Amino acid sequence: MGSRASSLLREEDIEEIKKETGFSHSQITRLYSRFHSLDKGENGALSREDFQRIPELAINPLGDRIINAFFPEGEDQVNFRGFMRTLAHFRPVEDNEKNKDPNAGEPLNSRTNKLLFAFRLYDLDRDDKISRDELLQVLRMMVGVNISDEQLGSIADRTIQEADTNGDMCISFSEFIKVLEKVDVEQKMSIRFLH
Amino acid sequence: MDSYLFPFDNLLCMLLGISFTVWITLLLVFIIVPAIFGLSFGIRRLYMKTLLKIFEWATLRMERGAREKNQHLYKPYSNGIIAKEPASLEQEIQEMRRSGQGGEPEFDMSDIFYFCRRGVESIVDDEVTKRFTAEELESWNLLTRSNYNFNHVSARLTVLWGLGVLIRYGLLLPLRVTLAFTGVGLLVVLTSIIGLLPNGRMKNLLSQKAHLMCYRICVRALTAIITYHDSENKPKNGGICVANHTSPIDVIILASDGCYAMVGQVHGGLMGVIQRSMVKACPHIWFERSEVKDRHLVAKRLSDHVADQTKLPILIFPEGTCINNTSVMMFKKGSFEIGCTVYPVAIKYDPRFGDAFWNSSKFGMVNYLLHMMSSWAIVCSVWYLPPMRREEDEDAVQFANRVKAAIARKGGLVDLLWDGGLKREKVKDVFKEEQQRLYSKVLVGGGSEDRSRS
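Above: the input entities. Below: the structure tokens describing the complete assembly.
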């Protein structure tokens, strides 16, 4: 019965979201239906509990960090615009060729923005640097109790050593981009949305 | 003044009397008598075909209306919103690493992409949460509760819809409620009477006939059009019948074609009355609320019942909760530990005529029954699968999964490992720990490879 919600989304809103994110009309209505079905409180916004109710997300080791990425600084609710803006990062890059607007800023799903999304998963305190502590914390989330502190520490040290070029023992965003320059980010951080 | 009213009054009474008699006669001839003998006039199937044609027409009109306004019609795609790749954690991460630098480091900052993408994919479309809401339909079936395109409904369609409402609530609903009361009332009365007889073959025979008759009346009370397949595999005494669970109606559907011993908790109120009278005629298994927690007690009572060959096969729904009939979720292993023959049954409802799924977190039982009785019809198919026994090298969980896979395959449902209890509860931490363990293996495994090489 949640799909009735498609009639609550106005055409103007759909157009605005289309321009901002690049999703097609039918994709937006389908995602709105999904948004509505997750919104158990039916108040037009999702809370962290609504996300945690998804079992496959709850068992993801980085589930909490991903959920956090949807919520702007200091907020507890995300509305549909915010939801779509975050999901837009995962649109495949090829789709951009269809609506090339030279005046528009960088699209949300560009390589740089995808890398920024991943960078923010590591950067827990949002200070634009990944410190050794932050890296350790994220590593601990991913491996659970299966690796000892010393081993994890040496993994973290090695990673920072390889990436850090300016010697501040932290990984900045540009250093992050450099480390991953050979990785096919566009493909790894894209979801195939059906039309 | 009086003389004016008097003839009208008389006329009115006469008309009411006649229509009432006609009504009851029609009811008796077309519904109750066939129910007693298990016959069918084929009226319901004709009704079904007519309805389908009307639904298709309705959807075409809506599409036309949408095209005229140059707008899009909301269409649910059964393929999903996104296309997922079913690769495992190890595969994906190894793949990512190979495409990166030459020498394999223990940890790569790009490993996070895998978890990130999987996480967002599950936010957009996951396998579990969509099983607990009613299935979406391709064409509109003139029920408000399944309409997603309000603004494309033209005037003609609205009239048709209005007519539908009148027929469903004015004609069908009272008819069905009458039948339901008749069926339930007869069940209570007949089983109580039969309960007075001494135990023996006569009693069993009469009890079976009485149960079948009353369930058939209830089937007609829902206008359920059921197709039974492979009846040669019907459950026999001394076995357990397992089926996928979509709604409480499953019981009525199965019990109108065969006799089963029911299992359940003792309820109060009307349900309690029905339960108490049913158990007088033939042995059913009702548990007190406190006994349900004691797994050993439950298992013992079930085994005792099954060991007695004169008793009817037990009917159990191992999922433990209602699922929306697009998938089969984890079977609880309790019934599979008993060690007798299991007769699997697959039930698949056709959602076009009325969704049978009971969303117990959203609707109560009365609300649900009202929905059921004001739908067009309940159309479903029942497949009796060949009996299965537990093999020597299988444990109860593996056996349960084997039965579940067979049911899912026959009914055309998705076979899921997830627990139906996730409808209300959080997922257990052990699954997350499993994911963490797998990833650690990739990290540490890659490391030892490195060391051996250098």
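Note for the figure: Chain A touches chain B through 65 residues (CB under 8 Å).
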